[in-house]
Backbone:
């Protein structure tokens, strides 16, 4: 949150959009809220990189950049400023930060606020998990399968750690306790392998919290006598 203290009569930004997580194709809502209603807002600029997406002039006239004309809805409310950006894509997060600049009157004095804490993040679908670690094991021994995947969410600096879910015949091993199946993140260890284990199908599913998920191909282990 950006706060600028103004001498005598303070009007600050009570809240800013901050870091927002959406999926590609979603409509994104930015809302900047003031602590108090300014006597009069003179100008408003909302920028992304070097592009002024929305400019509200002293006359009250609003102009929207041509590349955003069909995608942007702008509202100047009682104590807040609202921007809706439709159908977001990768291009909308390359430069990450959306900035609000406002010039307004409070206590008869012209003041300004600048906020650049509106950052947009898009969930991506993790790469398809690949299982490795060997599939041939002697009966009675242990075997460990490893799941490899990576996030495709952007920008990269906000990527969340992947969560891993292992299944056996579509039964979740991550939440179902089993004395012979031990899940440790991207690893699944099967202890004291039995001949019957070769008849079961194992998969790994990866995903970010709140994001999309990807599932590996089915694998089966080969049990040697």
Residues:
């Amino acid at each position: 949150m950006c706060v600028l203290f103004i001498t005598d009569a303070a009007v600050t930004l009570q809240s800013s959009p901050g870091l927002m997580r959406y999926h590609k194709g979603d409509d994104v809502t930015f809302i900047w809220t003031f602590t108090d209603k300014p006597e009069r807002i003179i100008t408003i600029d909302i920028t992304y990189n070097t592009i002024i997406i929305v400019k509200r002039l002293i006359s009250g006239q609003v102009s929207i950049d041509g590349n955003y004309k069909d995608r942007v809805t702008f509202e100047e409310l009682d104590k807040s400023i609202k921007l809706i950006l439709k159908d977001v894509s990768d291009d909308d997060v390359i430069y990450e930060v959306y900035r609000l600049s406002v010039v307004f009157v409070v206590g008869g004095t012209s003041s300004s606020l600048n906020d650049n804490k509106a950052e947009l993040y898009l969930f991506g679908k993790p790469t398809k998990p690949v299982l490795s670690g060997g599939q041939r094991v002697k009966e009675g021994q242990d075997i460990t399968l490893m799941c490899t995947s990576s996030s495709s969410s952007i920008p990269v600096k906000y990527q969340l750690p992947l969560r891993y879910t292992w299944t056996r015949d579509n039964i979740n091993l991550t939440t179902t306790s089993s004395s012979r199946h031990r899940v440790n993140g991207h690893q699944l260890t099967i202890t004291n392998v039995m001949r019957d284990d070769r008849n079961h199908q194992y998969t790994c599913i990866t995903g970010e919290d709140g994001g999309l998920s990807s599932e590996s191909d089915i694998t089966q282990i080969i049990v040697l006598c």
